[in-house]
Amino acid sequence: MNNRVYEFRVLSKLSQRELAKQVGVSKQTILVMEKGNYLPSLLLAFRIANFFQVNIEEIFEYVEEGATSYEND
């Protein structure tokens, strides 16, 4: 799964700690999610999308193994 959490967070001028507090997780969770080392639960993914007031698909995208999708953005 690809995500754009880092991009949305930076554009919103939030620290990892601030975003974590807003969505009810630890700063470490945001850190590893941004690095692509953590797949959030569906509930957390919706919390993040709701926080940024966008559809979940704008931040999270399922990609088949070996494929990437955000390359051309």
Automatic annotation (TrEMBL):
InterPro entries in the cross-refs: Cro/C1-type_HTH, Lambda_DNA-bd_dom_sf
DNA-binding recorded as keyword: yes
SMART domains, sorted: HTH_XRE
Residue span, HTH cro/C1-type domain: 5-59
Tagged with keyword DNA-binding: yes
Pfam families the record matches: HTH_3
Keywords: DNA-binding
Name this polypeptide is given: Helix-turn-helix transcriptional regulator
Native source organism of the sequence: Enterococcus hulanensis
Origin organism lineage: Bacteria, Bacillati, Bacillota, Bacilli, Lactobacillales
